[in-house]
Amino acid sequence: AAGGVVGEQPQLVLGGGRHQVRLIARAVERGIAVAVSDYYPDAPGKAIAAIPRDLDALDVEANIAFAREIGAAGVVTTGTDMAVATMAAVAEACGLPCYLSPEGARIATNKARAHEAIAAAGGVRPPAVRVTAPDDPALETVPLPAVVKPADSQGQRGVRRIDHRAARGAAVAA
User: The pTM is what?
Assistant: First the structure.
């Protein structure tokens, strides 16, 4: 059957896009029932899941309800930072094992929080300035060249190198 053995406690995979397809396929190959939460109706992972659901993988409350509805034995994501906080929250709410607490997941997936946590623990980190708007006065303290990276964006999304003072505000606004 598609998605593994229906009737077995399913594993909930947050996201059914190209980055999650291999995980879903490997679980199915092992006979594991797979439920997939993804808001794209044509997400490729849904085609091979036993229980596909049109649901935003970042919607914590909806995924908690989905996990409870199906009696999920576990929850996981891969290939994305974005759903990690959802994964940890679903696991905690449903009493499922997880390698991160919800707070740990929020720290791990937010660059500003991670930077602060590393500093608080005495860890080595590159210099950083937290900027919240294109006209933030803190921008004047940023030495050039610099890298602007959104605090809560996945991977390399939104990363910009700036070499000139005039480009600072535009890089933050983008």
Answer: 0.77
